[in-house]
Write a structure and sequence with these properties.
about 375 residues; Quinone Oxidoreductase, Chain A, domain 1; Rossmann fold; seven-stranded mixed β-sheet; six-stranded parallel β-sheet; 15 strands
C-alpha cells in the first residue's frame, strides 16, 4: 500500500488562534509502531480547551500543535518488531498530542501496535473512533491495579476478570452525566460488573439511549441535588450506594452530588488527574469515603498494564455487542469542519453524541 510523503493535518500555530488545515510530513513508524491511515477521528472537549491558556500552557509542548486523541483507520505500514497486525487491518486507537506524529486530527498517525484493537465488521470507522479516550479513561479510574504512587484509581476488580463480574453484582451504581461519552461507557461497564440498579442523570431526551446501554433509571440532570438525593433510596430499594462516578467533574455541584449520594465508605470516581481539580470538600469527603482520579493515557508506566489488558478485550466486546460505541454526529468537509464542531462542543450544543470527522474527505 503506497504511502504519500505529505498529508493534511489540523494545526494550531499559536495559542488563541483558530486551527487551520496545513500540509505536514507523513510520519514513519518506529520498530514497534504501525502507521494508520485515519478514516475517522472524534472530538473531545480538550481539543477546544487547549487553544487558550491555561490549558495551552499545560498541554502544548511544541508548535505547531496537532490535536486529537480518538481515531480509527487502516494500517498502511508495520514496524519491523510490531506484532499482531498487518497492512490492511482496520483498527481503533487512542492518539496522543505530546507529539504531532501521534495526534489524530490528520490523515495519518503512528501508534504503538500493542495499543490498537481490531475493528470487527459490525462496527464502522465512525463508530470506532468514538471509543478510545473515554473508554480508556473510565477503565483506568475504575480498574487500574498498579501499586505505583502515581496511580490514584479506585482499584476496583476489573470486569474482564471473573471476580469483576460478581463482586459488585446487585449493588447500586450512580453515574452523573450519563449522556456524555464518559458516562455512556461507565453505564456499560457498570452493567458488565452486574450493578443493579444503575441510576444516571441526563437530559430526558437521552433516556432511551441510556436505558439501551444498561441504565435502569434516568433522572433529569436539571433537578436540584436535594430532590435527586431524596429519591435515591426509593430507587435503590434502600440499598446503600457504594459506587458513584462523575463524568462531568468541572461542575462543582455534580461532584457534590456524587459525594453526597455515597454511603459511608463508598467510592467516588472523577475524571480529573488530581484532587486539586475538584472542590476541596469533595476531595476530602469524610465518612470513610474515597475518591479516585485519572490521567487518561495508557502510555504511562503505571497505566500500561491496565491498558494492555483493556485492548485485549475491545474487539470481542464490540463483536458480541457487549460494548456499544457512542452515537455519531458526522461533521462535513473532513478536517475543515472541525472548527465548527469544536464551537458546538464549547457552547454545550452536543448531547448524547460524539462529533466525528473524516480526515480523508478534507477538501
Amino acid at each position: 500500500m503506497s504511502v504519500p510523503e505529505t498529508q493534511k493535518s489540523l494545526v494550531l500555530r499559536e495559542e488563541s488562534t483558530p486551527y487551520v488545515v496545513a500540509e505536514t510530513p507523513v510520519p514513519r513508524p518506529g520498530p514497534s509502531d504501525v502507521l494508520v491511515k485515519i478514516m475517522a477521528c472524534a472530538l473531545n472537549p480538550v481539543d477546544w480547551a487547549v487553544v487558550d491558556p491555561p490549558y495551552s500552557k499545560i498541554f502544548i509542548k511544541s508548535w505547531p500543535y496537532v490535536p486529537g486523541t480518538d481515531a480509527a483507520g487502516v494500517v498502511v505500514e508495520v514496524g519491523a518488531e510490531a506484532e499482531g497486525l498487518k497492512v490492511g487491518d482496520r483498527v481503533l486507537f487512542k492518539g496522543d498530542t505530546g507529539a504531532a506524529k501521534w495526534a489524530t486530527c490528520q490523515q495519518y498517525a503512528i501508534v504503538p501496535a500493542e495499543f490498537t484493537a481490531i475493528i470487527p465488521e459490525n462496527i464502522t470507522f465512525d463508530e470506532a473512533a468514538t471509543i478510545p479516550l473515554a473508554l480508556i479513561t473510565d477503565v483506568l479510574v475504575f480498574y487500574n491495579q498498579s501499586p505505583a504512587p502515581e496511580n490514584l484509581s479506585l482499584r476496583l476488580k476489573p470486569v474482564w476478570e471473573p471476580e469483576g463480574t460478581t463482586a459488585y453484582a446487585g449493588t447500586p451504581a450512580f453515574i452523573i452525566g450519563g449522556a456524555s461519552s464518559l458516562g455512556q461507557f461507565a453505564i456499560q461497564l457498570a452493567r458488565m460488573a452486574g450493578h443493579d440498579p444503575i441510576i444516571t442523570t441526563a437530559s430526558p431526551h437521552n433516556a432511551s439511549l441510556l436505558t439501551s446501554l444498561g441504565a435502569t433509571h434516568v433522572l433529569d440532570r436539571t433537578r436540584s441535588n436535594a430532590s435527586i438525593l431524596a429519591e435515591l433510596p426509593t430507587l435503590t430499594g434502600g440499598k446503600p450506594i457504594e459506587f458513584a462516578f462523575v463524568a462531568v467533574p468541572f461542575y462543582p455541584e455534580a461532584c457534590r452530588l456524587g459525594r453526597d449520594a455515597l454511603a459511608p465508605g463508598g467510592a467516588l470516581a472523577v475524571v480529573v488527574p488530581a484532587p486539586s481539580r475538584i472542590p476541596e470538600d469533595v476531595a476530602n469527603p469524610g465518612d470513610g469515603k474515597r475518591v479516585g482520579y485519572v490521567w487518561g493515557s495508557v502510555r504511562l508506566p503505571h497505566t500500561r498494564d491496565c491498558g494492555l489488558a483493556l485492548f485485549k478485550q475491545i474487539t470481542g466486546w464490540l463483536e458480541k455487542g457487549i460494548l456499544k460505541p457512542n452515537p455519531v454526529e458526522l461533521l462535513p468537509n473532513g478536517l475543515a469542519g472541525i472548527n465548527e464542531g469544536l464551537a458546538k462542543l464549547k457552547a454545550n450544543k452536543v448531547s448524547g453524541k460524539k462529533l466525528v470527522a473524516r480526515p480523508q474527505e478534507t477538501p
